[in-house]
Specification:
- By secondary structure, the protein is an alpha+beta fold.
- Helices cover about 35% and strands about 30% of the residues.
- Strands 1, 2, 3, 4, 5, 6, 7 and 8 form an eight-stranded mixed beta sheet that branches.
- β7 (about 155-160) and β8 (about 165-175) form a beta hairpin.
- It starts with a strand and ends with a strand.
- The mean pLDDT is about 95.
């Protein structure tokens, strides 16, 4: 696979992965009506604007020339400075990381993480965090396999689609193996 910065031509595929992955990964975690309401067009507009602003930074993984679907996007990672209030300037955040369900367990997410990690280290960041649903066990296993740990007392709630959802923060140092 090839990992590269996203371009404007990637906005539609990024949006499709965003919506379809939410609809596959969050069944039973997020209200069904909310998942059904997700619109690729709305996310395409959002991602096009983010790519134009270059914030967050966005890397995409595409299949390489040896695959039958050469050039197809497999997943992406969005990252940048931490959005947390009062976060130190050397704290980064994975804003989102999504891999199409057909490509789960094939190393796409890990490859995206490694490229984002290398980029953030080069930019002077020392640590990184991300937010996840505690009931999303697949994601929790993935983040732990990358060396992330749940930050104690980080649990918070927010409303989405008329439901109260829990969220926890995972964190790690960027220079650890």
């Amino acid at each position: 696979m090839n990992i590269r910065p996203a371009g404007l031509d990637d906005a539609r595929a990024v949006a499709e992965i965003h919506v379809r992955t939410w609809q596959a990964a969050y069944v039973g975690l997020v209200p069904e009506a909310y998942l059904a309401s997700l619109a690729v067009e709305r996310y395409e507009t959002m991602w096009r604007a983010n790519i134009e602003r270059a914030m967050p930074q966005l890397l995409v993984a595409e299949s390489d020339s040896d695959d039958s679907d050469a050039g197809a996007l497999l997943g992406w990672v969005a990252f940048g400075p931490s959005r947390g209030a009062g976060a130190a300037a050397d704290v980064a955040e994975i804003w989102a990381i999504y891999v199409g369900a057909a490509h789960w367990g094939r190393g796409v997410g890990r490859a995206l993480w490694e490229r984002a990690r290398t980029t953030l280290l080069a930019q002077g960041f020392a640590s990184i965090g991300l937010w996840a649903f505690p009931r999303n066990e697949r994601a929790g296993r993935f983040y732990r396999s990358l060396g992330f740990a749940v930050e104690p007392d980080s649990a918070k709630q927010f409303e989405l689609g008329g439901a109260r959802l829990d969220e926890i923060r995972f964190a790690r140092l960027l220079d650890q193996s």
